[in-house]
TrEMBL record:
Origin: domain of life: Bacteria
Record's protein name: Foldase
Signal peptide interval: 1-19
Keywords on record: Signal
Source species: Candidatus Faecalibacterium intestinigallinarum
Amino acid sequence: MKQKLLALASALALCFSLAGCHTSTPDTVGSIGGEEISSGLYLLAQFDAYQQAAQYAGEDQDPANVKAFLKAEITPDGGEAVAVSDYVAEATQEELRRYAAVEARFAELGAELDPAYTAQADSYTDQLVENYGALYAANGIGEETIRHYEYNLAKQTALIDLVYSQDGETPLTDEELTDHLENEMLYLRYVTVPLYNTSTFAFADEDQTAEMLSLAEDAAASSTPDTFDETVAAALPGIYAVLDAELTAEDAAAQLSSSFLTRSQLTESFSEEAAATLDGLAVGDAAAVEYGATSLLIALRLDPLETLTLDALRATILSDMGAALIEADMDAAGAALSAELDQDAMSKLPASKIKMTV
C-alpha cells in the first residue's frame, strides 16, 4: 500500500497546480457513489496505476518512455497479457472506487478520525512533499490532495477496529482469530545475517553466499526448540567470519528475537522457494533461507499460544486479518457503486502526460 501511496501522492499534486494554471483543466471528473472525484484525485490514481504497471515491465520495455510504454503489453502476476493503457485505465477506476467506498463506509458508521491517525497522515504527507515535491509538481499533484488521500488511507485502517474488533459492528470470533493465527501467520524465533561485512560493506560473492547459507542451514538442522538459541548463537561467529567479520558470542545471542511473519510478508520479502520453505515449517522445525538480496534468515517456527494468550495477540491478529477483510470489503463495495464520470473531463487528463522524472 505504501507503493500505492507514493504513486498516488505524485499524481495528486498535478491536478492541484493545474487548476490554477490552465483554464481547460476540469475541477472534477464527476462522482462515484455520490463522492466527488477531483481532477487531482483522478490524476493521483492514474499515476499510481501507471507505477503499478511499470513493475511488470519487461527487460526491453522502458516505463520512463511513457507514450511508448502505454502502447506495450504487460503480464501481471497470475494474469494474462494486457495493454498497459488498458491496465492503467482499469486500475485507476478500481482505486477511485475504493476511495469512494471508504468515504461512504466511514460516514455510514458516523466515525471520526482519531487524532493519532490524523497526525500520522499529516506527518507522512509532509514527508512525501518534502522528498518528492518536485515530481509531484511536475505531475500537477497538490499537497492538499495528497493529504486528503492520506486521510482516506487512515480511514480504511480505522475501519478495521470499527467493523471487526470486539467493540466493532461485526466482531471477529475467537475461533476466526485463532484459525487465522494458525494458518496465515508464522511465529518465528529468528536471526538475520547480513550478506556483507558490516565494517567494510563488502558484499558476499556467490561462493561466499553459498558457504554462509550452508553454515546457517547446518545450524538450523542441528537445533531443537530447546537448543535453537544456543546453537545458532554459537554458529553466528563462524558465519560472519566467511566475510572476515567478527561477532562475539554475547553479541550473537543478543541478535535473536521473536516476531510474526504474515503471508503477505512472505510473498513480498522472499523468493518463491524461500517462502515455500518457511511456510512449510511445522511447529518446532527450523530452516535457513535467503532474505532478499542482502541477508540470510535462520528461523524456528513456534506455537505462539504456548507462551502467549489469544487476548494478548488479539490486536496483532486483527491488524493482519482485519486489513485483508476491509480491503476486500472496500473493493466489493466500490465495484457496486454507481459512477457518473465525465469522459470529456478525463480525456483532458490523459496518462500520456505522466512524468516519471523531473
